[in-house]
Design goal:
2 copies of one chain form a homodimer.
Chain A (H helix, E strand, L loop, with lengths): L6 E7 L12 E7 L7 E10 L3 H5 L20 E8 L9 E4 L6 E5 L3 E3 L16 H14 L6 E4 L5 H12 L3 E6 L2 H11 L3 E4 L5 H7 L5 E5 L4 H7 L3 E9 L3 H4 L11 H5 L3 E4 L9 H13 L7 E5 L4 H9 L6 E5 L2
Parallel strand pairs in A: 8-9, 8-11, 9-10, 11-12, 12-13, 14-15
Antiparallel strand pairs in A: 1-2, 3-4, 3-6, 3-15, 4-5, 5-7
Helix pairs in contact in A: 2-3, 2-9
């Protein structure tokens, strides 16, 4: 460990945002690199995952999970390497992922870490298509979307990390995959990078009409990451007995006032099932999901795409830009 | 048949309503009593069921079911007696229920009729707690609500026909049953007639606070008959993994503009399942439901309550008043 830094940079929560977070919501602090005690591992974080759900945890009121306290290190998964181990099962140099936070170094219990095989895929993929992101997509689609071959699967935030995996899994299952994304360029990318059959630009003036035209057979599964007005536009296009797994509400995270969804009567008329889900409730599915994702990746049916920002100090800016939709695929921060 | 009238009065659909229907939407026509042909039965309708769903079928655009055409006899179930039979299995004097419409006499195929046993319960109960109404309550609660003993079941339109049965079934299953109804008097009646543990007046100024106080353990199942602002008030009180069977949207049927539901983020936060259902999709459940309802009725656990309007000619007024919440229990029209 002679060549390692002796100081650990951490980004902590400084102030609750009003609407879109600003750099003033974060603070970069420096402290000595911690020492692992018995049963613990010291990890050097190489890549950090920056996720929309964090915005919800910056609120003053608990949402799906408890809010963050002031001064707390920002939550987030990282991929890194063990630099010192006092736990059996982990050795120096091992690659791991875990919920290790926005910092250079983390100590963790062995049970909080998963070993990853960087000969199968790059470490960053284990934070994206082969990590929690991919598992979220798989669980939401398979458990709550329950798509059948030939059905149409619509995905919002299709250019995002979860959405991209959902579309690829749907295609692989024999479904028609239609995405919704912001801007023509992103829509083109969604089709090219992930193989969606169609992708509709929600920023276009004729969005409602374009959406209808892209869905000649209606929607059987709407995998929703955004809620709000896009959900409202989709509801009248959902087929009878359609399923809507609700994975997130990105459109609402920075909103002053919640959007009022007007077309809920379609949930009754069309016997729709709308189901909110959070990944941590479904640990019993992780192994099946991971196996399916790795197999699809190995066979070339699942592509990982990422937007990489360099430098831990730029993580707040990467997070803010991601909430504005500046990224494509998984938003990551290269720390080392 | 010598003493029977030779003329049949029918109430037909005359004009689409704007907002609340008016008597001008209906017309009473007279024609000769029809003759049954081979395989048919002629039924004299004694009691007519008048239901909120009809309002949706008066729209210009199909909803959960096709809209009614102008000049069509209003749809509705009746209880009546066979006055002439050319079908095996039915004899003169037999009591039956069927979807026979707003009229004095109906011809029907034998397969469209169900025989009822008026020694077990009065004929009108087979249009309410022991009929489609009761089956709707049972299917929605058991299939989609899935209440467990000790859970809290909340029901909107608790003073209505479906709501009253839901509350009684929930109590019988060992749940706490809380109703929502319009006005103090109705709330008192809901508790007294059906045995709800609590009932909250949605017309009261302190509705939100009173609702919260009536639900110290939150809501595990919200059986929703009304949608709109009451659904919005309930969502923040639903427990994690709560279930919301959506049985109807009475609050929205006469609305100019659909209400925008603001608290859908709770569906995500609390992993709620919101499920629209329509009884006709669940014929495979009818036998189990009917058996359960009859058993509960026989054992005294299920009470049928009705509001009876006299005279077929007053059916439109009964329907209009019911949409305004003037009734308690099942709204029926005594034809004979």
């Amino acid at each position: 460990m002679a060549t390692l830094p002796t100081l650990n940079r951490q980004i902590v929560f400084k102030a609750r945002p009003q609407g879109l977070p600003t750099p003033a919501c974060f603070e970069l602090l420096t402290s000595p690199v911690p020492e692992p005690t018995q049963g613990q591992v010291l990890v050097r974080n190489h890549v950090l995952s920056v996720d929309p759900y964090i915005r919800m945890r910056m609120e003053a009121v608990d949402s799906y999970a408890p809010v963050m306290r002031m001064g707390e290190v920002l939550v987030g998964r990282t991929a890194g390497q063990v630099v010192a181990s006092r736990a059996s099962g982990f050795r120096e140099g091992d690659w791991v992922v875990g919920r290790l936070g926005w910092q250079d170094f983390s100590v963790a219990q062995a049970g909080e870490l998963q070993a990853i095989d960087t000969t199968l895929a790059p470490a960053s993929a284990y934070l994206g298509a082969l990590g929690s992101t991919g598992v979220t997509a798989w669980v939401g689609l398979m458990l709550f979307g329950q798509p059948k071959p030939g059905e149409t699967v619509l995905v919002s935030a299709a250019s995002g990390a979860v959405g991209g995996v959902v579309g690829q899994l749907a295609r692989h299952l024999g479904c028609r995959a239609v995405g919704i994304a912001g801007g023509e360029a992103k829509c083109a990318q969604v089709k090219q990078a992930y193989g969606f059959d169609e992708c509709v630009d929600y920023k276009a003036a004729n969005f409602n009409e374009a959406l209808r035209l892209a869905l000649p057979q209606g929607v059987d599964v709407y995998f929703d990451n955004v809620g709000g007005p896009i959900l409202d536009a989709v509801l009248p296009l959902v087929n009878h007995f359609g399923r809507i797994p609700l994975c997130g509400l990105v459109s609402q995270y920075n909103a002053d006032q919640p959007y009022g969804v007007k077309h809920l009567r379609e949930v009754f008329n069309r016997r729709i099932t709308l189901r909110g889900f959070v990944l941590s409730d479904h640990r019993d599915q992780f192994e099946a999901a991971n196996q399916a994702l790795l197999a699809a990746y190995a066979a070339g049916h699942l592509k990982h795409r990422e937007t990489l920002t360099h430098g831990l100090e730029n993580a707040p800016q990467a997070f803010i830009q991601m909430l504005q939709g500046a990224h494509f695929g998984k938003q990551l921060v290269q720390i080392t």
